[in-house]
Amino acid sequence: MTHPRSAFGATPSRGLSPDGQGPVDLARLAKNRTAGTGAAGTAPLRPGKAGSAAAAWFGRAWSRQFAPDRLLRLVVLVSLFAASAAVWWPVQAARLKEVAKVQGVRPNQLTGFGLVFGLDGTGDQSTQAPFTPQALAAFLQQNGITLPPGVTMQPRNLAAVVVTADLPPFAQPGQRIDVNVSSAGNAKSLRGGMLLQTALRGTDGQIYAIAQGNLIVGGAGAAAGGAKVQINHLAAGRVPEGATVERAVPMAMSHNGVLQFDLQSNDFATARAVAEAINQAKGPGTAQAVDGRVVKVRMPAQPADHVAFVADLENLDVPLQRPAARVVINSRTGSVVMNEAVTLGSCAVAHGSLTVTVNSTPQVSQPNALAGGQTVQTEKNDIAITQQGGQLMHLPAGAKLADVVRALNTLGASPQDLQAILQAMKSAGALNAEIEVI
């Protein structure tokens, strides 16, 4: 009787004897080997050539039979390790430049007042925007043109505008920056216009840039016969690289050899993580967290090393800490946004709706033929109030954001009603989060 052979030329439970003459039971051999007997179980294996050969053969046969099982177990364990890594893996990290800024390295706002020419009859109306003709008269006078006394200009192809721009940190004279242009009067559209040379000043009254160029307006519109169609906003535009920097703003990154990082949000855990990351990269004592928003760093002694030092710090990975639970409500749009730290306690909510309906029906009141009165039009108003009762619903406690969303969706409330529900849940102590209304 033959047996199906395994990968090493024997049956799964039987192998060849050391002399190659016949099969032998591996399980029995292992048992006998443990008991100190030979292959036949009649005499113990003693040190010598025969015993050594039998032991070597037994080790090779045993490893050939059970090695695939051990490899399979190893693959399964590695797979489980990789699959569970996403659950217990540490918090995500962000670069230092994304969570903090160097104090003093910031843009500066510039403003100016100018004129936009070349509009297709969509400019300011002089009677409602008298400053537009005055600005045009001042421009003409600067160019040597004086209007006769008593002449009132009513141009329709220009508009008074306010020009704004952000002067980037370390911007040098000759560099170009973008400018935003907004109508200051009642111009219908700035499309197709050109911004005349406009001085952009800072809060100190000094001129830091000069703006001029053709506007780019993202909207479009048309009107005819009392009908009007408009897409997006037409009273504001942008001039890409429309201003030239004329003066630089001096900036100092450090004060007395100390560099200060200001965190984007007030969080003591993040400040500690930033200080630890810097000390780990640049040595102990280099950085110190002052409070939940400020981290001070000791700069190198040589000024030539400051740029490389700050560049290395900005690219350090900082582990992001879990933020404070917060719910942000936009009262104008009805939007409700909550972060992942929001949790919900077990509570019961009853939600109903109140509807007020007003119907107005036009009617005609006509007097009798000989009454001498007048026929007038009146309105009949019907007001109805409908209140729909809501059942008391139990919301289970949720420790994750998905559980909170699932529980709130069971209410079927609109975003406007959800704002009132969240505030009531906060007052009842069932919502573990801070509510911010913007």
Molecular structure report:
The protein is of the alpha+beta class and 438 residues long. It has four domains: 14-80, no CATH class; 108-217 and 234-245, no CATH class; 254-319, Gyrase A, domain 2; 326-360 and 381-437, no CATH class. Helix content is 26%, strand content 33%. The protein is built from eight helices and 26 strands. The chain has helices spanning 26-35, 49-88, 96-99, 131-142, 268-282, 306-314, 401-409, 415-428; strands spanning 14-16, 23-25, 93-95, 100-102, 108-117, 158-167, 176-183, 194-201, 207-214, 220-224, 227-231, 236-245, 254-255, 258-263, 287-289, 294-298, 317-319, 326-329, 336-338, 343-344, 347-350, 353-365, 376-388, 392-395, 431-432, 434-437. A six-stranded antiparallel β-barrel has the order 5-6-7-12-9-8. Strands 4, 13, 14, 15 and 16 form a five-stranded antiparallel β-sheet that branches. The chain has a three-stranded mixed β-sheet with strand order 19-18-26, covered by helices on one side.
